[in-house]
Every structure is written in structure tokens, then in C-alpha cells.
Amino acid sequence: MLELPALGWQSIVIFVVFALSLLIATYCTYAERVIAAFLQDRVGPDRAGPYGLLQPLADAVKMFTKEEFFPSGANTALFIFGPCLAMITALMSSAVIPFGNVLEFGSNYFFLQGIEVNIGMLWVFGVVSLGVYGIMIGGWASNNKFSLLGAIRAASQNISYELAMGMSLIAVLMISGTLSLREITLQQSVAGEWHFWNIVKQPLGFIIFLVCAFAETNRTPFDLPECETELVGGYHTEYSSMKLGLYLFSEYVNIFVASAVMSVLYFGGFNFPFQYELRDWLVSNQDWTLAGAQNLITILGTVLLFGKIFGFIFFFMWVRWTLPRFRYDQLMRLGWTILIPLSIFNILLTGGLISFGIIQ
Amino acid sequence: MQPLSNRAKQVDKKPMTLAERAYLPAIFQGLSITMRHFFMKKPTIRYPEEQRPFSPVFRGLHVLKRDEQGRERCTACGLCAVACPAEAITMVAGERKKGEEGLYREEKYAVSYEINMLRCIFCGLCEEACPKAAVYLQADKMAPPRFERDEFIYGKNRLVEPVSPDNRSKRGIQLTEEQAQQLRAKMDAQLA
């Protein structure tokens, strides 16, 4: 029924998603400062523009005009390549996320998604786990022991938590039977039934995934790769100017992608409760065409998906200013002796529930 | 030991319960605390737009008062300089010439009067020492920050209060409404 979208439309969507990720990451820096301030009974930046809304611009100008510093003994090529890789991998992963359902104009269908692939989830996790190379290369090329320690910590932390993350995901796959993020989203909205989001079927899996997402994005309480109190600046100690900006920026893009993935996998993506009832009501009582009503649902769904994403981003920041950092051995113990057994238990539990027909 | 505040807590090393080991209840508790702070009223004062109100007894920047006819009250007796524990005040006395009766109240006046604001400790002893009610520390002005040290030495050009009755300092002897009107009329006549 649905045609493949034209290449032109696809590139437009990819460009919009690219621009949006950058814009959201930019304003994440502002949101982080304001939320941090509010949680600490302060007001945050309010000098640049109304409510300080131009603060990210001022920060960008500062970053661009700072001195580019290369430490002596650093591997210059890798030193430049590190932040580039971190940024590229952060931006690549948002291409497969379905930001909306389908728009219908005449006989043309437009998917609000960059690339629809049947390995969407594998793509996201493959690219995200490549991101740690950016950190490792940057930390290693700096020729600084603090950077190296931060990079090693980043690598070992990501390996430890990616296991639990992948296994909590397997439970979702057992329910959905597909790796395509669009399919997983659509399965969370069956017409005529109560719209089961995966969070209802996978509460334990979601908690594991959430904790691992914090570790994967190097956010507090798992921000050991860059902990200022122990390692000066961690892997980006030697970085300055926009190369540092790219590292900080890629962290926020990663948060955005992690929030989007969590919304899609566990919180119904672009679905919202009573969407089909709303569509049928518009068609039968308000004389809307089916296509028009469907388009409205799609746009509403996209807006709501961004609402969910922003909610998660807020949660990331909320947690950052609430919890202190884990000690390194505690971090490793949590990953290997608690989260991984728990995620295996979650797989067994899901399998049991499926075989007894309780969830499907 | 006798409890003093009734807030002493018994500490023991018993193993954590399952809820404590699961971290999550404590995390939710912490999140609720920070969320409460999110909606609390912020005590921040956005400085250039809002200003913290000064106390009425605040001792700020000095002013050399004029009397109700607009003449300088200071007679350069030097008691303020003697009283000053920080030795911040210097002055040069001079004799009033004929025709300057409208400028200086007494026959002797301060040709120059300087206060070094970097030395001044704003104790207000000069104000107490002054027999002519000439020097006061204002409650609503501070010595602003400067880039150069010599800019902190305030001469008569910055210390003597303006002639205009509307811009007079709120500290010290105030003009009555009639005096202010008389002075304003006199100034208008001089201008005309």
C-alpha cells in the first residue's frame, strides 16, 4: 500500500532531522544551565536576549573564537579526528528514528523518517557504540594521563553497560519480533484496543535501559570519563576551542538520541491514546477526509513524540543535579553483578509470560 | 553523655535492607526533593534592574552638605581628619575673600577636601566629629568600582552636594519646603 518515499523527500527529512538535532542540542546547553539553576534555587543565565535565550549563541561565539591549542607530543591527526568522530556518530544515529507516521497528499505518501531500514535498532546501537571511539581516540591522542584515564574509563564503562542495554532490548524484540523502529512503534498502537505501550509490558526492561542510557551518554551519576573532581576534565582535558565544543555538543546530541530511542521503544513513539477514536470522530462528525484526519493525527503524534523526548531530556538533567557520582568500583559492580543478571532475568520472565500467553 | 540538642543520631553498621540496596526508593526521594526546589521562589536579585534595599543606617559614599542658602557648610577645621582612624581625609584651608559670602558659610573654608575611598573604612567617625554638620555618609550611594587607583580619591568636585534643591542628599540637615522654594527662586533669578 505504501510507496517508497522519493529520494528528494528523504534528503529533506534527513536535513531537517540533522538541523533539529543540532538545534535541540544547542538549546540543551541552555536548558541544562537553567534547570540546574532552578534546582539549586538560582535563576540561571538571563543576560543574553529575553530570558537569556541567546545564551547558546554567545557560547558558540566564545567557543569559536578561543585559541586552538595542541599539546606537545600529541598525535595531531588523531587529536582532530577524535571530536569529529564523536560528533559524526552522535548525529548519524538519529537518521533511522521514526519522528512521525506518514503524511498523505493525493497519491503521495511522505514518511517522517530519515531512512526506514529493517535493522533500525541495530543501526542505532552500532553507531552509538562507535561513539566511544571518538572519546578513546581523543583521550589517547592528547598525550595526557588524565585524558587517557578518562578514555579508558569511558571504554570499559560503555562495554559494561552496553551488554545490559542490549539484553534489555532483546526482551522488547521478543515481543515485537522486528528490529525496525517504525514497526515497533506501529505495534504499540493497535486500533480498537487499549493502546499498549511497551512500558506496560516491559517495566523492568525499561528501568535497565534507562540506567544504561545514562551510562552510555556519560551523564551523572555515571560521568566518570569526564569527572572534574578526579580527572581534571577527563578525556577532554587537553581540548579547547570548538574541538571541546564538539565533544560537549555530541554529548547533548547523544542525550537527544537516547531520549528519542526510549520514547520510541517504550513510550509508543508517535502514538498517543485515543488517536484512532479522534480520527474516526473527525471523519464521521466533522466531515474531514480520511487523509486529512490522518495527517492531523500524524502531525499531533510528531509534536507529542517531541514532547516525550523533551520530557526524557529534562529527566536526564533532573537526575544530573540530584545524584552524586558513583565510585568506579560501584559503577562496575552495578553493571556486571546487578544489571546484567537482572536483564537476563527479564528475558526469562518475558519468555515465560509470552509462552503462557499473558503478553504478546 | 548528656544529650544537648536531642538531634543526636545513633549510628550502627547493620546491613542495608533490600529497599536500601535497590537504590531506587532513595533516588525517588532525592528526585522529589530537587523537584520541590525547582518550584521554590528564587532569592536571586537581578542586580542592575533590581537593587537590594539599603538599611536606613547604611554608611556609604560621603557628601559635603550645603546650607539652606546653597553655601558650603565646611569650615575646614580638620576635626574629621583628626577623627578619621584610617587617615583618609586631607584638606587645605583658605580664607574667604570679599564677594564669596554666597559660596561659603564661614570666613574659613576648605580650598581642597579629599577623601581616599580606598583608605576609608566607612566608620562614620568624621560625621560624628563634624561641628558644622557638613560631612555625612549617604545611605543610598556607594563608592563605585573604578579601574584606576587615583580615581578613588574623591575631591570637592565629587563630594560637595549639588546646588539644586531637588538633587540634595537625603542625609543631614534637610531643607524645609519653603527654603527649597526660596533657593529655587533664587537660582531661577540668577539664571534669568
From TrEMBL, chain A:
One of its GO terms (biological process) is aerobic respiration. It comes from the Bacteria. Its EC number is 7.1.1.-. It catalyses: a quinone + NADH + 5 H(+)(in) = a quinol + NAD(+) + 4 H(+)(out). GO terms for molecular function: NADH dehydrogenase activity; oxidoreductase activity, acting on NAD(P)H, quinone or similar compound as acceptor; quinone binding. InterPro entries: NADH_UbQ_OxRdtase_su1/FPO (IPR001694), NADH_UbQ_OxRdtase_su1_CS (IPR018086). One of its GO terms (cellular component) is plasma membrane. PANTHER family: NADH DEHYDROGENASE SUBUNIT 1 (PTHR11432), NADH-UBIQUINONE OXIDOREDUCTASE CHAIN 1 (PTHR11432:SF3). Belongs to the complex I subunit 1 family. This is NADH-quinone oxidoreductase subunit H. It comes from Hymenobacter aerilatus. The lineage of its organism: Bacteria, Pseudomonadati, Bacteroidota, Cytophagia, Cytophagales.
Automatic annotation (TrEMBL), chain B:
Keywords: 4Fe-4S, Cell membrane, Iron, Iron-sulfur, Membrane, Metal-binding, NAD, Quinone, Repeat, Translocase, Ubiquinone. It catalyses: a quinone + NADH + 5 H(+)(in) = a quinol + NAD(+) + 4 H(+)(out). Gene3D superfamilies: 3.30.70.3270. Coiled coil: none annotated. Its cofactor is [4Fe-4S] cluster. It comes from the Bacteria. One of its GO terms (cellular component) is plasma membrane. NDH-1 is composed of 14 different subunits. Subunits NuoA, H, J, K, L, M, N constitute the membrane sector of the complex. NDH-1 shuttles electrons from NADH, via FMN and iron-sulfur (Fe-S) centers, to quinones in the respiratory chain. The immediate electron acceptor for the enzyme in this species is believed to be ubiquinone. Couples the redox reaction to proton translocation (for every two electrons transferred, four hydrogen ions are translocated across the cytoplasmic membrane), and thus conserves the redox energy in a proton gradient. This is NADH-quinone oxidoreductase subunit I. It comes from Hymenobacter aerilatus. The gene is nuoI.
